[in-house]
Amino acid sequence: MTSQKPPFRFTGRSIAAVSALAIACIAFSSMAAQARPVVVRGAPFSPAYADAITAAHAKLLQISTDPFHNAAAQHKTEVESDNFSFGNTMVATFQVGRFPDSNAGSTDIGWSTTSDGGKTWMHGYLPGITTLSPLAAPQYQRVTDPAIAYDAKHGVWMIVSLPYGTFRSVTTYLVPIVSRSSDGLTWQNPVHVAPDNGDFMDKPWIACDDATMSKFYGHCYVEYIDVNLGEVLMMSTSTDGGVTWSTPSRSADSAGGNGGQPIVQPNGTVLVPFLGFSGIETVNSKDGGKTWQASVLVASANEQPMPGGLRDPGPLPSADVDAGGNAYVAWADCSFRSGCLENDVVFSSSSDGTHWSAPSRVPTSSRSSTQTDWMPGFGIDHATAGSSAHVGVTYYYVSNAGCNSSTTCKVYAGYISSTNGGTTWNHPLQLAGPMQPAWMPQSDLGHMLGDYLSTSFVNGLGRSSIPIALAPKNGKFRQATYTTAMGLPPLRDRIQLSTFGERPVARLPRRPIPVME
Asked: How would you label 99-109 residue by residue, b for 16+ Cβ within 10 Å and e otherwise?
């Protein structure tokens, strides 16, 4: 197969922090971290509660940029980032050069990689996908929805994405493709998960079984939906490092929905939480992806649409699993707010993928605030478990859910963490903002940052890859992918936030599940 060498390199010294962004600091001190925590239930954010993480941790570094110039797309734009880490390496992936029209998608898929724990970054663009990709592949006109995983057994990084092209005179989003790399820097031309059939596909995701004790160690799983079949979930498995993939299969009840995210427990059980027609649901496989059990309900999902003309993916889930096999799934939900007027990040957990806890609210703000959250990226340090699990959540929020325009709504990126599996939480950290929706590229469904975020831990430090928009300059967008300068340490505030005892108080009528490229 052909491959492409990385042309760009970023280092912490060569990239200035984003001076236009307002950065707030969580406060910590070594003495406070050792003291017995004081738990405050339902407390609003106040920087007086803490003593300070250094400003160096809170700086943001730009780790990629849009190099394309095709006239039909919006440029200097990057949206919708996923990331994954293994050892000292973290790879982020994202859309580059977003199109504004109803056919959606982007010019290519970008990647940015650190092999030294975040000190330096290199970035580039996947080859062989679209007519403008390196090593151009004229069969595809656009591409969307990237997600990434690492196969430890075979030593392969994989990015799954959804190409837009023509099959037998039908032009649509086709079967997912997988791009492979042994180092996260040099990428091969993609392989197909299955033969194209002309059906309209959406929202692929990928995960690998990296637990050496699992009898399915080295199995990788791709999930996506077939819209033509009624948004049915389709699952495919690879056992050879992503070179070949099994014939896609459905769950026993042909479950349907969108936004599925496979995660793998250390015993080899695969869970796929997704937004289903009854709420947040999951399907499981206990035989390495050969068969998939009927779906089970995690919880109902109620999400208030985002204001200001922002693209709103709905309550799509974000999922991860700790070293003990405890699975977590998070989503945006307004059930804990009077009148369901604002969204919080909520999460549920399970040890077996079948029986799930009642949703708990993450205290990114108080229940009386006007803040509304969306697009949580829920991550766990895979070296931790249970009551000592380190959790990080990256998310976006609007400070006032009652704002009503693309120029008056204020958008921020935030991060909140827990060192005890989500029992109590540190105070939230503002990573970026305020941003205006009008600064973001237009999509078929509104001003776009993405449909999902992710959080990874690199050597115990929380990291994300976050699309951030600056004010346009000379009529040109300035939206790119950023990360924190040093990673966010799993320290513990002396005063911890808790939502213990809170209960849902509101519901909204169910909305149709969106199809979003």
From this structure: beeebbbbbbb
pLDDT tens column, 103-124: 999 999 999 999 999 999 999 9
3-state secondary structure of 170: strand
Are 10 and 121 a contacting pair, CB within 8 Å? yes
Distance CA 284, CA 277 (A): 17
- What's the CA gap between 322 and 345, in Å, rounded? 19
Cα separation, 83 vs 465, in Å, equals 7
Mean pLDDT, the chain, integer: 89
Q: Do residues 176 and 147 touch, judged by C-beta distance below 8 A?
A: no
- How much is the pTM? 0.91
Q: What 8-state DSSP symbol labels residue 236?
A: E
**Nearest to 116, CA basis, from 183, 167, 49, 57:** 183
The rounded distance, in Å, linking the Cα atoms of 230 and 63 is 38
d(CA 421, CA 261): 20
Would you state the structure tokens that stand for residue 485, as one six-digit string? 């300068």
What separation in angstroms does the CA of 348 have from each of 29, 246, 334, 375, 385?
30, 31, 15, 16, 15
Rg, Å, the chain Cα set? 21
Strand partners, 196: none
In the three-class reduction of DSSP (H, G, I as helix; E, B as strand; rest coil), residue 237 is classed as strand
Beta bridge partners of 192: 177
CA distance 459 to 457: 6
DSSP H/E element including 58: helix 55-58
Residue 295: pLDDT over 50: yes
> What 3-state DSSP class applies to 191?
strand
Maximum distance among all Cα pairs of the chain, rounded to whole angstroms = 67
Length of the chain: 517
What are the two backbone dihedrals, phi and then psi, of residue 245, each rounded to the nearest 5 degrees? Answer: -135, 145
Q: Identify the pLDDT of residue 38.
A: 52
The tokens for 392 are 């990080």
Alpha carbon separation from 55 to 28, 62, 168, 337, 484 (Å, rounded)? 12, 16, 56, 33, 11
Can you tell me the distance from the alpha carbon of 5 to that of 122, in angstroms, rounded to the nearest whole number? Answer: 11
| Beta carbons of 260 and 250 less than 8 angstroms apart | no
Q: Which two tokens stand for residue 68?
A: 């394309």
> Which residue from 464, 433, 326, 316 is spatially nearest to 371, judged by alpha carbons?
433
Residues 281-290 pLDDT 10s: 999 999 999 9
SS3 420: coil
Q: How many helices (H) and strands (E) does the chain have?
A: 2, 37
Sequence-distant (≥ 6) Cβ neighbours of residue 418 within 8 angstroms:
389, 390, 391, 424, 425, 426
Q: Which helix (H) or strand (E) holds 431?
A: strand 429-435
172 pairs with which residues across the strands? Answer: 165
pLDDT digits (tens, 9 = 90+) for 401-413: 999 999 999 999 9
Convert the pLDDT of each residue in 384-441 to its tens digit.
Answer: 999 999 999 999 999 999 999 999 999 999 999 999 999 999 999 999 999 999 999 9
